[in-house]
Structures are given as structure tokens and as C-alpha cells.
Amino acid sequence: MDAVEVTTVVYLPREEVYEFLLSFPNYAKYSKHLEDVDVFGDGSPGTEYALHFTWWKLSYTARSEVTAVDPPERIDWRLTKDLDATGYWLVESVDPPEGRDVATRVTMRVEYHPESANKGAIDLPRLVSWDWLFEKLEPKVHEEAERVVRRIVRDLEGESRAVELEIEAF
To answer: Has residue 32 been placed in a domain?
Structure first.
């Protein structure tokens, strides 16, 4: 199994951060490759999302489902087709640095099994192999995780700032 985890600190109460993250359809505006999100439910466990991605010459719609929520701390999800992947958002109160009244640590973790991909789900162009595609996509997954977290922090706090990210790949 491969995984990527991105962690940062936001200077807002965790309840506010949690509610923001629960609004999954808004993620399309943070992602370079996520074009649109269709929602089937209210964000509670069992809610499904159709995530419409485009990259290079490829288009793909991923399906995900919220599997559990623990307000205001955690949102768990899984993909429901074509790839074995799960993830979560973890929202934790932490001691604020000097000059700040409140701080919340936000962690986004994605775990996936590249070998579980349904190779019939995407129609690859001629002369493009699955090995080549996975080699190109892996760094994109990491870049996209970082981009999404940076943009979320900007919108939550209402201004751009240097955001320190801890990124771990497993």
C-alpha cells in the first residue's frame, strides 16, 4: 500500500475548519485536475460523490463515499470503484503560537493500492502503458494533495500566507 499525508496548521477553531472540510463539493475549486463534483447525500456517512478529473489526454470520474464522521475531528472516506483507496481528514486543536488566539492542525491522508487499479476503467492512448501512467501520476497525487491543502488554508483564513506543510509519503 502507498500513502501520502499532508499536515498543516490553520489559525481558526477546529469546529469551523471541520465544517469547511465537510463541504466536499467545494474541493473542485482547489484542485487543478478536479473539474466538478456531483453529490448524492448530505455529507453524512453513506454520502457518495462523483469526482470528475481531467489530466493530460485523460478524463475519469472517481466515485467516493463518506464512511464515517466524528465531528469535529474526523471525516473518513473510500473510493467505491476502480481503485482500492481510503483516506481521512483529521482536525485537532493545538496550542497556538505567540500572537495567535487559536490553532488547529489539519491532516489529509490518502492510502491506495496502485496494483488494484481497474485497467479497463481508462481508455489509454495508443503507445501509452499503465507503467508509464503510474510513473507520471504518483508525483501528481503528491502535488495535488499539497495544492489542495494550501488553497484551503488561504480560503479558511481569508488571506494568503506562507503555509508550512509536513508531507510524508509511505
So the answer is: no
Per-residue pLDDT band for 126 (boundaries 50, 70, 90) equals low
Q: Is the pTM of this model over 0.90?
A: no
Q: Give the domain range for residue 87.
A: 2-25+67-169
Number of structural domains in the chain: 1
How close are the terminal C-alpha atoms of the chain, in Å?
8
Structure confidence at residue 94 (pLDDT): 98
Average pLDDT across the chain, whole number: 84
Say what the pLDDT of residue 165 is: 80
Q: What is the pLDDT of residues 95-114, one digit of tens each?
A: 999 999 999 999 999 998 87
Q: What is the 3-state secondary structure (H, E, C) of the chain?
A: CEEEEEEEEECCCHHHHHHHHHCHHHHHHCCCCEEEEEEECCCCCCCEEEEEEEECCEEEEEEEEEEEEECCCEEEEEECCCCEEEEEEEEEEECCCCCCCCEEEEEEEEEEEHHHCCCCCCCCCCCCCHHHHHHHHHHHHHHHHHHHHHHHHHHHHCCCCCCCCEEEEC
